Structures are given as C-alpha cells and as structure tokens.
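User: What would this chain look like folded?
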Amino acid sequence: MSRVEPREASPDEPEPPEPGAPARRDAATRPASPGATPVDGDPVKGEPGDGEPVDGTPLASSSAGAGAGDDDPAPGGGGSGPRAAGAVPVAVAGAPPGTVAAATPEAAPGAGAATLPGGGPGGAPDGGLPRGPGGPRGLGKPGPGRAPGSGTRRPSPVRRREAWIGLAFVAPMLVLFLVFRFGPTLGAAFLSLTDYRLSGEWDFIGAANYTRLLQDDLFWESLGVTAVYTALYVPMTVLLALGTAVLLHRTLWLRGFFRGLFFLPYVTSIVLAAVIWKWIYEVEDGLLNAALGVLGTGPVDFLGDESLVLPSIAAASAWKGFGYSMLILLAGLQSIPREVSEAATIDGASAWQRFRWVTLPLLRPVLFFVLVIEAIQAFQVFDAMYVMTAGGPVRASYSLVYFLYDSGFKFFDFGYASAVGLVLFLVVLVFSLIQRRLIGREED
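Assistant: Here's the prediction, encoded as structure tokens.
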C-alpha cells in the first residue's frame, strides 16, 4: 500500500507541526475509539486536513461508510487516497452533524472522549461507558464523573458514633427482652427433658416426657378441643373486625366515637367479660334466654350442652377481642389509595367487585397479621373456659393450655407441663407458617 503524500497547506490553514512535536489540538476535539465508523463530512477548519501529518504521521481522508476500501475516495473530504493506518475520525463540538476530523490515537493527552453516532463518549459501544484496563467502568478504574471508591462508601465517624449511641439507648430494653423472652423459653426446653419435683430436685430423663405426651389420650383430646375452638374463633373475630372496619371506613359522622365504642371491650378484663357472658348464657335468668322466651323459644343451655359450649365461648371471646383487629384493619383500609377504588368505579365495577378484587388484595399484609395474632390468641385460650365452664361439660371445653395448667399447678409435674408448652409453641409456629403460605405471601 502506497503512502499518501501530504498536500500543501493553504494560506488560511495553520502550519503543520514539526515531526516529533505534539500535535496542536482544539479543546473541542475528542479522540474517538479505534474501530469507530467514519462519517461523511469535510475536514474541520483549524484542524489538519486530509493527508496532513499529525505527530509526523500523514493521514488519509475519511472514507464514506464503514465498509469502504483503502483506495476508495472520500466524497467531500477534500482529498483522496488510502486511509492511513491508525487514523480515526473524531467529532468536533459545535460542528454540523456528520462533520469529523481525522486524528491518530496518539493525539494530545488532554483531549476528551469523542462523541459519535451510535455510541457514547469515545465511541464506546456500551452507550458511553469508557473501558479501562479492567473492563467496563465499575470493574476497572473509575470512569469520568465517578469518584474513586464511590461504590463502597464507608460510613463516616459521625454516623458510626450515632449508631453506637442509639444502640446504647436500646441496649437496656434489648437485654430485658432477651432475658425475659428467650430465657424462659430456653429454661422450659431444658425443663421438659427432666423430671423436676416441687422440692427442687430433678433428674434428667431425656425425651421421656415427649414420649409420654404422645401416648396421653387427654393431651390429644385437649388438642382437638383447641383446634375446634380456633376454627370457630378466628373466622368469627376476623369477619366481625373486617365488617366493622369497612363500616367505619365509610362512615364520616361520629367515626371516632364508634371506633372508641367498639374498642372498649378489648380493654375490659377477660375475667369480667367472662362473668358477664356467663350471666347472659344462664338458662333461667340469662338475658339471651329471656329474649328467646319472648320469641316463643324454649330455654337453651348454651354452656351445658357439649355441642354449644365451644361456639358460645368463641362468640364471647370474639366480642371481647375484635376491637384490636378492627383498628388494625381500619388503618390498613385508610392506607389504600382512593384513586384505585375510583378507577375501578369508573370501569364499572360494583361495590362487591371493588371489595373482592381491589380492597382485599391490597389488604393482604394487614389481614395476614390479624390472622396470625388471633390464631395465637385462640391457641392460648384459658381464662374464658376457666371462668365460664371450668373445662366442662365432660371436658368439652378443656383446652391445651388448661391441660398445661393442670399438669403444672395441680399435679406439680413441671417437666411434663414444660413439654406441653413446647409442643404448643411448635403447633402455633406450624399454623403461622401455613397461614403465611396460603395468604401472607408478598405480591410479585
């Protein structure tokens, strides 16, 4: 391939630099990355023309199109001849679109990155991420506009000191939580492996208490009673709380008054509530049977009938505890954007369709929390059964916690009672995980 001879410069053009001297470059000139596609256009005034030497290397005019051959003439380039090896076109700021100037990779070190169509600074194919020795920006040296080490910023001493101060304030409560929460749990787990007596003496017996528990018919009976009570109490409480929350959410008049009125039973003592409901369920002098007598229906023994005792206790407990869930669900309803319901109304959705397909899906996290809390409370039922029925009739209301109470504080079998408590903990945990699997999953 023949070498292109430099043409003579016109009087208006600057003199080419001496061989070996650094090329004079305009501040707006940017070197392009090798291999960038040339663009048609005339040489920029003030820059070396086609064939003018830069750093002692003569350059050929830029050819039109990436696939032009070495001997193709450059249309509009002001010169012809083969393209010099290493010569790349560069764009000039302020020049018309498609105007480029030829330069070699040995251009002035202070020149910035070129801007070419279809690429970023320096003609980078990744949209403007210059590549350093280590690859793309972020994998090697930091690129322009990014401070070194900005990806792994270390916290300042002030922030670390504030974090330690906050931890110091929280530490007392954290220690109390660990001692009075995890301490008794670990103690009960150890106690369930022993034969602990009231005198303080104990013998390590391993898993004997659990083996005995699996063979105890009374344990399985109390577990069944607890499961039935939970199946009655949780839906009853959640539906009552959800319905009340929806009504309060739609009510604008005296909303605060009704909210406090419905929440009042929750702050009432469970023993006092059980005594009141025991009087309501009385066969002879009970308020409910008196109302049934007016309607011409005979008296019903709500607490003496084996088939009615658990629904009766569940109804009383639901009246007592639905206020807390109502407030939680009401807060969840108020957090739903009104624009979503308005958009569904504009689309023609009915009230039930808006509630089923808009409100309930958005209320799922709050509903999951309420279900878990109410299920835990249902598995731990004891006070209402102890006051209203004392476990009767014929142990039809003998819950698992009631069985734990009798084992530990009536028969003083503390190791066995601790095993019952650990089994109850595992049952609640499994039930909560099932609820999480069914309705508590986060939306994609």
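The CA atoms of residues 22 and 267 lie 87 Å apart. If you want, I can go into more detail on any region.
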